[in-house]
Amino acid sequence: MQQLLRYLYLSLVFVLFSVFTYAQQCPLPNRITPAGPVSLFVCNGGSITITANEGLNNPDLKYKWKISGRDAAPGDTNQTFTVTQAFIEAQQGRIADIYYEVTSRSGSCPGGANTSKPVTVSRRTADLVAPQFTITTASPQCSGVPMNFRVNGTEDPNLDYIWDFGDGTTAEGFTVAHPFIYLGAGSKQFNVTVVAATPGAGCRSAASAPQSVTIDGGPVFTPADVIDSANFEICIPEDSSVNVRAKLFNNISAANAANITQYIVRWTPDGTPESYDPSLFTAQNFIRNTIPFDTTGTFPISITAVTAACSTTVTKLYQIATKPVAGMEIVKKERAEPPAANPLDPAPCVPVNVTVSDTTEARGGKITRKWAVLNNQGQPATGFIYIDNTTDTSATPVYQFTAQGRFQIQLIVENRCGRDTTSQSVLIAFPEVQLSGIGPVCGDTTIAFTAQNVNYDANLGTEVAGSFQWVVSGTSGATYVEGTSATSKYPVIRFPNIGDYQVSVSFANECGRSNDPSIAQQGDPSQTVITINQIPNPPTIAVAGLAICAGETATITPTGPAGNTFNYYTVATGGTPVATAATYTTGKLTLPTTFYVTTLSPNGCESTGPRTRFDVNVFPAIENNTISQDQEVCQGSAPVLLSGTQPTGDDNSTGYRYTWQFSQAGLNGTYNTAPGVSNGRDYTPPVLQSNAWFRRLVISASCEPDTSNVVAITVSPRVAGGTISGEQQVCVNEPVLPLTGSALPTGIIQWRSSTSSANAGFGPATNRNDEENYEPGVLSQTTWFRRYVLSAGGGCVDSSNVVQVTVTQPVTNNTILADQSLCGGERPAPLTGSTPQGGTQPLQFIWESSTTGPTSGFTAATGTNNTANYNPPAITITTWFRRGVLSGGCDTNYSNAVQITVLPAITANTISGTEPAVCENTAPQTLNGSAPAGGNGTYTYLWESSITSATAAFAPAAGTNNTQNYTPPVITRTTWFRRTVISDNCSSVSETVQIDVTPLPTAPVVQAANVSTCTDSTATLVATGPGGTYQWFETATGGNILFEGATFVTSRLRQTTTYYVQTVNQNQCVSPTRTPVTVNIVSITADAGRDTTIIEGNTMELIARGGVRYQWEPAAGLNDPNVQRPVARPAKTTTYKVTAYSEEGCSATDEVTITVIPRVIIVNTFSPNHDGINETWEIQQIENYPQATVEIFNRWGTKVFTSDTGYKKAWDGTYNGQDLPLATYYYIIRLDNISKPISGNVTLVR
After folding, report:
1. Domain PKD, which positions (predicted)?
2. DSSP state of 837
3. Which segments of 32-118 does DSSP mark as H helices, in order?
4. Among 231, 510, 1163, 1179, which residue carries the largest CB count within 10 Å?
């Protein structure tokens, strides 16, 4: 019995795991291998096998291969599909969109089939042709110099080109470059070939004809010849600066060094090459880099040995390193699927795969690494393996942990300069919680624990509902509030008392609890201490406030419990303290300010309640104390009133008091009370004989007096202006004769001028204006002048008389009209001129002409040339004209020059067409016109047409008729065209071009307007008519020609398609319409009905739909395989396939599966007499009927037994727990809801 129970348990686990496994595959996997490049190829005589879900062996998956929506091969449901050359040939040489559909046999993945991505397979109809190539670099070349190779012709994007250079190396590409290496005397030849190959499956051509290249040998100079005193590896102590110079020796043999003329060394890839004489680089003489290496790393040093012919370059890696800094990062952690070798293991917690990345800071030099895993006690751990082809030396190892617990992943890195170790904890399967530190806090506090301060990590698992457990210890009194409890995920806890509370939290996932002792660690992040501190009392201040003058400071001195300090605010609530100290001295204040003070305990708690207030009243500073203004006065004169502004500020409780002061010793001299009335807001100075400075003091309340600005009164000696002369009249822009002035004994001279009048508008004159006489220079308008004399201090001034210089204005508005062009021998139109302005009236005119140009060669014009306008005579060459205006004795003013252009005759006006005739209702092609010559070089065009003749009835042509070329519209009869070219006043008419019209052919007649064919079959379409060529299209208008000819065989069709045919006659005229032919696709879908289960020996009627006739297979077990509704009596579970045919002979297939289950075997006697034999009434095979029920009746019809569904517990001959007597009983067995019940009798024997 124990073995039976174990068997049943394992079976149940297997079923549950199978369901889990299949559920994990939803959506169903749909990989296809190979996925191709653009196209997969089958070479001649070969094949290619395509695999669905390669590497996955799942009996629940059912495959169906398809090609463009149809079955690839009837009944082909294997996981692989092989495409052969013959199969592709049957598909017209190419299989597009080959894919498969995958479904679940058990139905564990709802939603139907999943479809893979398609691939394309093509057959190579011929062997690949061996490519040929060209060497594009001249031969011979020196060793190490790249040579270029290119395949001849055009590159095929579906092919790879593989090169063999004959030196043991290969390369791919349509064009390649390759350096050949040969060291030694003379030269060496290498044979080069190339082959073409397809990607993916890889058809391959024969090799090309080989071509040889000749390589001249370079000097025998090898990396082994170059040595370094430190063997090219330098270790730098940690935290030391890098300053390293290499020390290189050269061990080249004398024979190999004989022809070397120099060595060129590049110490860094981007450094400047340095040249060394061979004598300086030997086994005894070393070379060093001029600029030291200043950082760690690997530096490639290239050294080139140069001869008169070729050179050889070697590269040595110079490594500068320091001790590495180990670093690592866990980049991925995920649960692995249960191993396929142990499908009965349902545990979801392990294995867990952990991917770790080495983030070591190498700090130069080559490093080695070694990974290790330690248990929670720091000892080497078990319960893990390396997977995915990684080891304990991989850069990114992948661990598979098969045991739960806390592990330390350790990394040891080492280079020749030292080693470093780092480690990181990883928790497998168990959950983890991190509780952020809170506080300390002050006084009775309620803390809401949220996702911001509590982080629950289910560690790839699922939180177990109700598993949260909070523990608070230490200081008493903590309570859970707001409806939360110790089992809440995010509780709200009140901490009412002063002291330390220890708070911890744990929870569980399906693998264990976060506080499991086996994963304990120091500094447990699931625990924290919350400290509740005492809140201090508010401070007291002996004096509630004080008053100060603006700009002074105030000191606040609070008192309170010893050891505390104080916060000072400028707001009653909120805000940020302006200071934290025992006492606080403010900055200089300018406004009344209130401060608020709180007590701050040593542990950071601040007193609560109203803050203690301290008021500072500030008397505002006196402002707006200014006086005006500086003055200059003549000696013996009284200055004007000095005015002062009305002051503001201070408390002004006693009013403002004024004191005016003055100094005669300078701005910064000694100031005394000013003479006269000096205590008013304003002040009137007395008559002054010398310079003086004044200021005002303003006093208010008890604050310091405020001093105004200082004004200066400058006293100057008196002066006399004298006289000037030199009135004159000049033309505009002519120089003015100097103005002379009388001699002056003293004073500063300034000549002033005005363009307004003799009495106003004077300002400083231009040019040099501070001498006794004055030269005005060139003037543009009438100007008045006088001379001013100022005292040395500027306080006294006198002026001379005024003289006038009259300026005659230039003539303006002298313009004439207009440029003209005309053919030779014509008379120009009259030239008109504007009415001139300015000058001296009356004005005089003179017209001039030139045949040279607009700026030279002018002489008096012929005819009447002294009037405002001018009539030119007839001219034969291009001529320019201008008008001169004379005013007084000033220069003649000339107008603009107008040009009268004499144009040459128009030539080269020809037109041509490309077709003498067009089809009816067809527009002719463009008529081309030559580029004309002559005229003014700018041309306009007019195209004309006539339907009468080549010489009469021409009218402007339709459409765009004003361009050099002309595209006619559709014409219906013979038409003549010509072009007129116009340039200015000249014109020319071309010869004519005639275009005739050819009638259109009639549309063709088709043999049948509607044709039917099967899906994926061709159709034959036939056209007839009056003759000509027939062209077939897919569109009613436009489109590409599919076929030319009367009989057209379509491609294979999968949907109804309409084709169109038109007639083309010998003149290439097309019928006005296309005749349509519709190919109707006969669609047929076979339906074999639903899969059914029957009892062994029963029959089942199969019903097919979708066709007019049918064929079933296999025929075994069917009464007639060629009818729609055959009767099946299968001996075992059988899948029948039906092929349905339409009236047109088209076919489709479908399948139906009849599952046969065995009949039940009923015994009619059992003996439940407690001897252990035949104790229950067993019904064999009833386990195949999970819905079966059994009822037992005695001979009086009383029901003595009713089974559970499936008859899992057999009848033991009892009724209501009591043994029934020996008798015959009657049963009714219902196997399901469909089958007829089974009845009979069974005898109970005791």
Report:
1. 130-184
2. B
3. 85-90
4. 1179
CB burial of 217-227 (b: ≥16 within 10 Å; e: otherwise) equals: bbbbbeeebbb
- Exposed (0-12), middle (13-18) or buried (19+): which is 187, by Cβ within 10 Å? middle
Identify the CA nearest to 496 among candidates 476, 471, 473: 476
> pLDDT (tens digit, 9 = 90+) per residue, 36-49?
554 677 776 667 78
pLDDT digits (tens, 9 = 90+) for 742-782: 988 888 899 999 999 999 999 999 999 999 999 999 998 89
Report residue 794's pLDDT band, with 50, 70 and 90 as the boundaries: low
Tell me how many degrees the CA angle 574-578-581 measures, rounded to the nearest 5: 110
Longest CA span, the chain: 172
Show the beta-strand stretches assigned E in 575-664: 579-581, 584-585, 593-600, 612-619, 627-628, 631-634, 643-644, 657-663
Mean pLDDT of 720-737: 88
DSSP-based three-state secondary structure for 376:
coil
Q: Which segments of 955-998 does DSSP mark as H helices, in order?
A: none
Q: Is the dihedral of CA 227, 232, 237, 242 positive or negative?
A: positive
The amino acid occupying position 691 is N
pLDDT at 1020: 93
Length of the chain measured in residues:
1246
Rounded to the nearest angstrom, the gap between the alpha carbon of residue 555 and the centroid of all alpha carbons in its chain is 61
Strand partners, 1223: 1244
The 8-class DSSP code of residue 247 comes to -
In the block, residue with structure tokens 């309620």: 446
Opening angle at CA 396, ends 391 and 399, nearest 5 = 55
Mean pLDDT rounded to a whole number for the chain: 88
DSSP string computed for 518-538: GG--SS-TTEEEEEEEPPPPP
- Sign, CA dihedral 397-403-404-407, equals negative
Write down the pLDDT at residue 336.
Answer: 80
Does residue 1015 surpass a pLDDT of 60?
yes
Residues facing residue 123 across a β-bridge: 42
Contact indicator for 382, 404 with CB cutoff of 8 Å: no
Note the pLDDT of residue 699: 87
What is the Cα–Cα distance from 260 to 908, expressed in whole angstroms? 74
**pLDDT greater than 80 at residue 100:** no
Stretch 427-436: mean pLDDT, rounded?
Answer: 94
Instruction: Give the DSSP letter string of 380-398.
Output: BP-SEEEETT--TT-SS-E
What distance, in Å, lies between the first and last C-alpha atoms of the chain? 25
Selection from 336, 364, 361 nearest residue 350 by Cα: 336
Split at pLDDT 50, 70, 90, the class of 74 is low
CB 1092 within 8 A of CB 1100: yes
Residue 1208 CB-half CA count within 13 A: 6
Pairing label, strands 1005-1006, 1020-1024: antiparallel
Q: Which pTM does this prediction carry? A: 0.41
Q: How many CB atoms lie within 10 A of CB 942?
A: 16
DSSP string, 746-814: SSEEEEEEESS-SSS--EE-SSS-SSSSB--EE-SS-EEEEEEEE-TTSS-EEE---EEEEEEPPPB--
Distance CA 1042, CA 480 (A): 86
The three-class DSSP label of residue 256 is helix
Distance from chain centroid for Cα 328:
31
556, 563, 576: which is closest to 537 by C-alpha? 563
Distance CA 1043, CA 1171 (A): 93
pLDDT value of residue 126? 61
Residue 653: pLDDT band by 50, 70, 90 thresholds? low
CB neighbours (10 Å) of residue 133? 21
Q: Which of 1187, 1168, 1173 is nearest to 1245 (CA)?
A: 1168
